[in-house]
Design goal:
- The chain has 382 residues and is an alpha+beta fold.
- The chain has a domain at 86-218 and 254-340: archaeoglobus fulgidus dsm 4304 fold (2-Layer Sandwich), CATH 3.30.2170.
- It has helices at 5-38, 44-57, 133-136, 145-165, 188-208, 223-230, 246-253, 302-305, 308-323, 331-340, 344-360, 370-375, and strands at residues 63-66, 86-94, 105-114, 123-131, 171-176, 210-217, 264-267, 280-286, 295-301.
- It is globular, with a radius of gyration of 24 Å.
Length: 382
Protein backbone atom coordinates (compact mmCIF):
# COMPACT_ATOMS: atom_id res chain seq x y z
CA UNK A 1 0.00 0.00 0.00
CA UNK A 2 1.18 3.59 -0.53
CA UNK A 3 2.12 5.94 2.28
CA UNK A 4 -0.82 7.28 4.30
CA UNK A 5 -0.32 10.89 3.22
CA UNK A 6 -3.30 12.14 5.22
CA UNK A 7 -1.78 10.80 8.44
CA UNK A 8 1.62 12.30 7.56
CA UNK A 9 -0.01 15.66 6.75
CA UNK A 10 -1.46 15.82 10.27
CA UNK A 11 2.06 15.38 11.72
CA UNK A 12 3.75 18.07 9.63
CA UNK A 13 2.62 20.91 11.92
CA UNK A 14 4.40 19.30 14.89
CA UNK A 15 7.44 18.66 12.69
CA UNK A 16 7.57 22.33 11.71
CA UNK A 17 7.27 23.50 15.31
CA UNK A 18 10.05 21.16 16.46
CA UNK A 19 12.20 22.41 13.58
CA UNK A 20 11.54 26.05 14.56
CA UNK A 21 12.60 25.38 18.16
CA UNK A 22 15.72 23.55 17.01
CA UNK A 23 16.60 26.42 14.69
CA UNK A 24 16.36 28.92 17.57
CA UNK A 25 18.77 26.75 19.58
CA UNK A 26 21.16 26.49 16.61
CA UNK A 27 21.05 30.28 16.10
CA UNK A 28 22.17 30.79 19.70
CA UNK A 29 24.96 28.23 19.37
CA UNK A 30 26.03 29.79 16.07
CA UNK A 31 26.27 33.26 17.60
CA UNK A 32 28.45 32.02 20.48
CA UNK A 33 30.61 29.79 18.28
CA UNK A 34 31.21 32.57 15.74
CA UNK A 35 32.16 34.97 18.53
CA UNK A 36 34.68 32.48 19.90
CA UNK A 37 36.04 31.75 16.43
CA UNK A 38 36.51 35.48 15.83
CA UNK A 39 38.25 35.95 19.17
CA UNK A 40 39.23 32.81 21.10
CA UNK A 41 40.98 34.98 23.70
CA UNK A 42 43.94 32.62 23.76
CA UNK A 43 47.24 32.21 21.97
CA UNK A 44 47.82 29.42 19.48
CA UNK A 45 49.96 27.49 21.97
CA UNK A 46 47.32 27.95 24.70
CA UNK A 47 44.69 26.37 22.42
CA UNK A 48 46.97 23.46 21.57
CA UNK A 49 47.73 22.87 25.25
CA UNK A 50 44.01 22.80 26.10
CA UNK A 51 43.35 20.21 23.37
CA UNK A 52 46.29 18.05 24.50
CA UNK A 53 45.07 18.14 28.10
CA UNK A 54 41.54 17.23 27.09
CA UNK A 55 42.79 14.30 24.97
CA UNK A 56 44.47 12.78 28.03
CA UNK A 57 41.15 12.52 29.88
CA UNK A 58 39.19 11.67 26.73
CA UNK A 59 41.24 9.36 24.45
CA UNK A 60 38.41 9.33 21.90
CA UNK A 61 38.39 13.11 21.50
CA UNK A 62 37.96 14.21 17.87
CA UNK A 63 38.46 17.87 17.18
CA UNK A 64 40.37 20.39 15.10
CA UNK A 65 43.83 21.65 16.04
CA UNK A 66 44.48 25.14 14.63
CA UNK A 67 47.60 25.54 12.52
CA UNK A 68 47.44 29.32 12.49
CA UNK A 69 45.71 32.40 13.87
CA UNK A 70 43.28 34.08 13.41
CA UNK A 71 40.90 31.12 13.45
CA UNK A 72 38.44 32.98 11.23
CA UNK A 73 41.00 33.88 8.56
CA UNK A 74 39.64 33.72 5.00
CA UNK A 75 42.09 32.65 2.27
CA UNK A 76 41.04 33.93 -1.14
CA UNK A 77 41.68 32.22 -4.47
CA UNK A 78 45.43 31.93 -5.21
CA UNK A 79 46.86 33.38 -8.41
CA UNK A 80 48.16 30.11 -9.82
CA UNK A 81 47.79 28.78 -13.35
CA UNK A 82 46.56 25.17 -13.23
CA UNK A 83 48.65 23.66 -16.02
CA UNK A 84 49.50 20.43 -14.20
CA UNK A 85 47.62 17.08 -14.13
CA UNK A 86 44.56 16.55 -11.97
CA UNK A 87 43.33 13.03 -11.32
CA UNK A 88 40.25 11.85 -9.43
CA UNK A 89 38.81 8.48 -8.47
CA UNK A 90 35.59 7.15 -7.03
CA UNK A 91 34.19 3.71 -6.49
CA UNK A 92 31.02 1.73 -5.90
CA UNK A 93 30.39 -1.73 -4.58
CA UNK A 94 28.05 -4.68 -4.37
CA UNK A 95 27.34 -5.83 -0.81
CA UNK A 96 26.92 -9.60 -0.35
CA UNK A 97 23.39 -10.72 0.42
CA UNK A 98 22.37 -14.12 1.72
CA UNK A 99 19.06 -13.66 -0.12
CA UNK A 100 20.72 -13.95 -3.55
CA UNK A 101 21.39 -17.34 -5.17
CA UNK A 102 25.12 -16.65 -4.76
CA UNK A 103 26.80 -14.43 -2.18
CA UNK A 104 29.42 -12.16 -3.66
CA UNK A 105 30.95 -8.75 -3.24
CA UNK A 106 32.36 -6.54 -5.97
CA UNK A 107 34.14 -3.20 -6.22
CA UNK A 108 34.28 -0.95 -9.27
CA UNK A 109 36.79 1.93 -9.35
CA UNK A 110 36.99 4.68 -11.97
CA UNK A 111 39.89 7.11 -12.27
CA UNK A 112 39.93 10.11 -14.61
CA UNK A 113 42.91 12.38 -15.30
CA UNK A 114 43.17 15.58 -17.30
CA UNK A 115 45.43 18.55 -18.00
CA UNK A 116 43.31 21.59 -18.79
CA UNK A 117 44.35 23.28 -22.01
CA UNK A 118 46.38 20.30 -23.23
CA UNK A 119 43.91 19.54 -25.99
CA UNK A 120 43.63 15.96 -24.79
CA UNK A 121 40.36 14.38 -23.65
CA UNK A 122 40.21 13.15 -20.03
CA UNK A 123 41.81 9.71 -19.66
CA UNK A 124 39.38 7.21 -18.07
CA UNK A 125 40.42 3.92 -16.47
CA UNK A 126 38.13 1.33 -14.88
CA UNK A 127 39.26 -1.33 -12.41
CA UNK A 128 36.73 -4.02 -11.40
CA UNK A 129 37.31 -6.59 -8.66
CA UNK A 130 35.28 -9.57 -7.50
CA UNK A 131 35.79 -10.11 -3.77
CA UNK A 132 36.52 -13.73 -3.01
CA UNK A 133 34.78 -16.19 -0.71
CA UNK A 134 37.58 -16.38 1.91
CA UNK A 135 36.92 -12.71 2.70
CA UNK A 136 33.26 -13.50 3.41
CA UNK A 137 34.17 -16.51 5.55
CA UNK A 138 36.49 -14.55 7.85
CA UNK A 139 35.17 -15.29 11.33
CA UNK A 140 36.52 -12.09 12.87
CA UNK A 141 35.26 -9.52 10.40
CA UNK A 142 33.62 -11.08 7.36
CA UNK A 143 32.82 -9.15 4.22
CA UNK A 144 30.70 -6.51 5.92
CA UNK A 145 29.68 -3.22 4.35
CA UNK A 146 32.30 -1.48 6.49
CA UNK A 147 35.07 -3.80 5.30
CA UNK A 148 34.08 -3.38 1.66
CA UNK A 149 34.20 0.40 2.12
CA UNK A 150 37.73 0.06 3.52
CA UNK A 151 38.83 -2.14 0.63
CA UNK A 152 37.27 0.30 -1.83
CA UNK A 153 39.17 3.22 -0.24
CA UNK A 154 42.41 1.27 -0.56
CA UNK A 155 41.74 0.35 -4.19
CA UNK A 156 40.89 3.96 -5.05
CA UNK A 157 44.10 5.34 -3.57
CA UNK A 158 46.21 2.54 -5.03
CA UNK A 159 44.83 3.17 -8.52
CA UNK A 160 45.40 6.91 -8.15
CA UNK A 161 48.99 6.39 -6.98
CA UNK A 162 49.67 4.12 -9.97
CA UNK A 163 48.23 6.72 -12.36
CA UNK A 164 49.96 9.67 -10.66
CA UNK A 165 53.32 7.93 -11.00
CA UNK A 166 52.91 7.99 -14.81
CA UNK A 167 52.07 11.70 -15.00
CA UNK A 168 54.40 14.73 -14.87
CA UNK A 169 54.80 16.25 -11.42
CA UNK A 170 53.09 17.90 -9.66
CA UNK A 171 49.87 15.89 -9.74
CA UNK A 172 46.76 16.77 -7.73
CA UNK A 173 44.79 13.66 -6.73
CA UNK A 174 41.22 13.85 -5.40
CA UNK A 175 39.03 11.15 -3.89
CA UNK A 176 35.47 11.32 -2.58
CA UNK A 177 35.38 11.26 1.23
CA UNK A 178 37.94 11.81 3.95
CA UNK A 179 41.51 10.55 4.12
CA UNK A 180 41.14 9.00 7.57
CA UNK A 181 40.05 5.36 7.34
CA UNK A 182 36.91 4.42 9.27
CA UNK A 183 37.56 1.84 11.98
CA UNK A 184 34.79 -0.72 12.30
CA UNK A 185 34.15 -2.23 15.73
CA UNK A 186 35.85 -5.61 16.05
CA UNK A 187 38.03 -5.07 12.98
CA UNK A 188 41.41 -4.92 14.72
CA UNK A 189 43.45 -7.42 12.71
CA UNK A 190 42.02 -6.65 9.28
CA UNK A 191 41.93 -2.94 9.92
CA UNK A 192 45.56 -2.82 11.03
CA UNK A 193 46.66 -4.70 7.91
CA UNK A 194 44.72 -2.36 5.63
CA UNK A 195 45.93 0.68 7.53
CA UNK A 196 49.55 -0.35 6.93
CA UNK A 197 48.83 -0.75 3.21
CA UNK A 198 47.04 2.58 3.18
CA UNK A 199 49.92 4.40 4.86
CA UNK A 200 52.32 2.90 2.33
CA UNK A 201 50.16 4.28 -0.48
CA UNK A 202 50.13 7.76 1.09
CA UNK A 203 53.91 7.57 1.48
CA UNK A 204 54.13 6.72 -2.23
CA UNK A 205 52.23 9.91 -3.07
CA UNK A 206 54.78 11.84 -1.03
CA UNK A 207 57.69 10.11 -2.75
CA UNK A 208 56.48 10.95 -6.27
CA UNK A 209 55.57 14.53 -5.33
CA UNK A 210 51.81 14.15 -5.80
CA UNK A 211 49.21 16.07 -3.76
CA UNK A 212 46.48 13.71 -2.46
CA UNK A 213 43.24 15.14 -1.08
CA UNK A 214 39.94 13.77 0.21
CA UNK A 215 36.87 15.83 -0.67
CA UNK A 216 33.86 15.71 1.69
CA UNK A 217 30.80 17.39 0.19
CA UNK A 218 28.27 18.90 2.62
CA UNK A 219 30.12 17.59 5.69
CA UNK A 220 28.37 16.92 8.96
CA UNK A 221 31.53 17.01 11.10
CA UNK A 222 31.86 19.05 14.28
CA UNK A 223 35.65 19.21 14.53
CA UNK A 224 36.08 22.98 14.84
CA UNK A 225 32.96 23.46 16.96
CA UNK A 226 34.21 20.77 19.38
CA UNK A 227 37.52 22.64 19.59
CA UNK A 228 35.64 25.89 20.31
CA UNK A 229 33.65 24.08 23.01
CA UNK A 230 36.94 23.29 24.79
CA UNK A 231 37.91 26.97 24.83
CA UNK A 232 35.12 27.99 27.22
CA UNK A 233 35.45 28.71 30.92
CA UNK A 234 34.58 25.11 31.78
CA UNK A 235 36.04 22.87 29.05
CA UNK A 236 35.10 19.69 30.93
CA UNK A 237 31.36 20.39 30.87
CA UNK A 238 31.47 22.41 27.64
CA UNK A 239 29.04 24.99 26.29
CA UNK A 240 27.13 22.71 23.88
CA UNK A 241 28.95 24.27 20.91
CA UNK A 242 29.96 20.80 19.75
CA UNK A 243 26.34 20.23 18.67
CA UNK A 244 26.87 22.78 15.90
CA UNK A 245 27.97 21.60 12.46
CA UNK A 246 31.21 23.12 11.16
CA UNK A 247 29.52 23.50 7.79
CA UNK A 248 26.92 25.87 9.22
CA UNK A 249 29.59 27.83 11.08
CA UNK A 250 31.86 28.27 8.07
CA UNK A 251 28.97 29.15 5.78
CA UNK A 252 28.95 32.41 7.79
CA UNK A 253 32.71 32.87 7.46
CA UNK A 254 33.55 31.69 3.95
CA UNK A 255 31.23 33.97 1.98
CA UNK A 256 33.63 34.83 -0.89
CA UNK A 257 33.36 32.47 -3.89
CA UNK A 258 36.00 29.72 -3.80
CA UNK A 259 37.72 30.90 -0.62
CA UNK A 260 38.96 28.58 2.12
CA UNK A 261 39.73 28.52 5.83
CA UNK A 262 43.07 28.08 7.50
CA UNK A 263 44.47 24.55 7.66
CA UNK A 264 43.63 22.62 10.81
CA UNK A 265 45.20 19.49 12.23
CA UNK A 266 43.08 16.61 13.50
CA UNK A 267 43.05 15.33 17.05
CA UNK A 268 41.82 11.72 17.01
CA UNK A 269 42.66 8.36 18.52
CA UNK A 270 44.06 7.22 15.17
CA UNK A 271 46.29 10.27 14.77
CA UNK A 272 48.29 9.19 17.81
CA UNK A 273 49.52 6.11 15.90
CA UNK A 274 50.10 7.78 12.53
CA UNK A 275 53.51 8.92 11.27
CA UNK A 276 53.61 12.73 11.69
CA UNK A 277 54.06 13.42 7.99
CA UNK A 278 50.97 11.31 7.16
CA UNK A 279 48.68 12.77 9.83
CA UNK A 280 45.37 14.11 8.51
CA UNK A 281 44.95 17.88 8.17
CA UNK A 282 41.99 19.70 6.63
CA UNK A 283 40.48 23.00 5.58
CA UNK A 284 36.98 24.14 4.71
CA UNK A 285 36.33 25.31 1.16
CA UNK A 286 33.47 27.30 -0.37
CA UNK A 287 32.81 25.49 -3.65
CA UNK A 288 30.19 27.98 -4.81
CA UNK A 289 30.59 30.79 -7.32
CA UNK A 290 27.35 32.35 -6.10
CA UNK A 291 26.26 34.25 -2.97
CA UNK A 292 25.12 31.10 -1.12
CA UNK A 293 28.17 29.22 0.18
CA UNK A 294 28.49 25.48 -0.41
CA UNK A 295 30.96 24.25 2.18
CA UNK A 296 33.16 21.20 1.69
CA UNK A 297 35.89 19.77 3.92
CA UNK A 298 39.14 19.00 2.15
CA UNK A 299 41.52 16.59 3.90
CA UNK A 300 45.27 16.45 3.17
CA UNK A 301 48.30 14.72 4.71
CA UNK A 302 50.54 16.78 6.99
CA UNK A 303 53.37 16.93 4.46
CA UNK A 304 51.03 18.72 2.03
CA UNK A 305 49.72 21.05 4.75
CA UNK A 306 53.28 22.08 5.60
CA UNK A 307 54.06 23.07 1.98
CA UNK A 308 52.26 26.33 1.19
CA UNK A 309 52.77 25.94 -2.57
CA UNK A 310 51.15 22.49 -2.53
CA UNK A 311 48.14 23.84 -0.62
CA UNK A 312 47.84 26.70 -3.12
CA UNK A 313 48.01 24.29 -6.05
CA UNK A 314 45.31 22.14 -4.52
CA UNK A 315 43.14 25.20 -3.78
CA UNK A 316 43.55 26.45 -7.37
CA UNK A 317 42.78 22.98 -8.75
CA UNK A 318 39.55 22.74 -6.75
CA UNK A 319 38.47 26.14 -8.05
CA UNK A 320 39.22 25.14 -11.63
CA UNK A 321 37.28 21.88 -11.22
CA UNK A 322 34.26 23.51 -9.54
CA UNK A 323 33.99 26.06 -12.36
CA UNK A 324 33.59 23.36 -15.02
CA UNK A 325 29.91 22.76 -15.91
CA UNK A 326 28.87 24.98 -12.98
CA UNK A 327 28.49 21.96 -10.68
CA UNK A 328 29.99 23.63 -7.57
CA UNK A 329 31.67 20.25 -7.16
CA UNK A 330 34.97 18.96 -8.60
CA UNK A 331 34.18 18.00 -12.19
CA UNK A 332 36.50 14.99 -12.41
CA UNK A 333 35.21 13.60 -9.12
CA UNK A 334 31.64 13.80 -10.43
CA UNK A 335 32.66 12.13 -13.68
CA UNK A 336 34.49 9.38 -11.78
CA UNK A 337 31.34 8.69 -9.78
CA UNK A 338 29.28 8.42 -12.97
CA UNK A 339 31.77 5.99 -14.49
CA UNK A 340 32.17 3.84 -11.36
CA UNK A 341 28.56 3.34 -10.33
CA UNK A 342 27.35 -0.28 -10.41
CA UNK A 343 23.75 -0.28 -11.57
CA UNK A 344 21.19 -2.81 -10.38
CA UNK A 345 21.25 -4.40 -13.83
CA UNK A 346 25.03 -4.76 -13.56
CA UNK A 347 24.78 -6.56 -10.20
CA UNK A 348 22.19 -8.98 -11.64
CA UNK A 349 24.45 -9.72 -14.60
CA UNK A 350 27.42 -10.29 -12.27
CA UNK A 351 25.34 -12.71 -10.24
CA UNK A 352 24.36 -14.64 -13.36
CA UNK A 353 28.00 -14.77 -14.55
CA UNK A 354 29.10 -16.20 -11.19
CA UNK A 355 26.20 -18.67 -11.16
CA UNK A 356 27.09 -19.81 -14.68
CA UNK A 357 30.70 -20.32 -13.60
CA UNK A 358 29.65 -22.37 -10.59
CA UNK A 359 27.32 -24.54 -12.67
CA UNK A 360 30.03 -25.17 -15.27
CA UNK A 361 32.34 -26.38 -12.50
CA UNK A 362 29.51 -28.46 -10.97
CA UNK A 363 29.79 -26.50 -7.71
CA UNK A 364 26.51 -26.38 -5.74
CA UNK A 365 24.97 -23.02 -4.90
CA UNK A 366 22.00 -21.85 -2.91
CA UNK A 367 18.54 -20.71 -3.95
CA UNK A 368 17.26 -17.14 -4.03
CA UNK A 369 15.06 -16.34 -1.03
CA UNK A 370 11.35 -15.73 -1.58
CA UNK A 371 11.83 -12.25 -0.14
CA UNK A 372 14.40 -11.47 -2.85
CA UNK A 373 12.12 -12.91 -5.55
CA UNK A 374 9.38 -10.54 -4.46
CA UNK A 375 11.81 -7.60 -4.45
CA UNK A 376 12.89 -8.51 -7.96
CA UNK A 377 9.27 -8.64 -9.06
CA UNK A 378 9.37 -12.36 -9.79
CA UNK A 379 7.65 -13.68 -6.70
CA UNK A 380 4.32 -15.52 -6.62
CA UNK A 381 1.21 -13.41 -7.09
CA UNK A 382 -2.30 -14.12 -5.94
Amino acid sequence: MPINYLEIKQQIKDYCETTRQQQKKMDDLLFRAESRLNDPGKSLQDIINIIQTASKTNPNLRCAIPGDLPLNKVVLAPEIVVDFPIIAADGSQVIPSRHRQVEFGAINIASISMILGSGNAPDIKISSSLLNYPDMADTNFGLSEGKIALIRDLYERRLLAEQAEKLPSPVVSITDGGLELYRELGADREYDEMLRDYMAILAKFQKIGAIPAGYVDKPGSRLVSTMLDLLGLNPVEGDDLSFLSDRILFSRILTHPYCRSIVFGLQSSQSQNTPPELAVNFFYFNASRLDTPKIARVEIPAWVAEDELSVQRLHASLIQQCRINGWDFPYLLGRAHEEAVIRYEDSIRLEEMIATGLRSEKIPMGDMSEKQRMKDGSGRKG
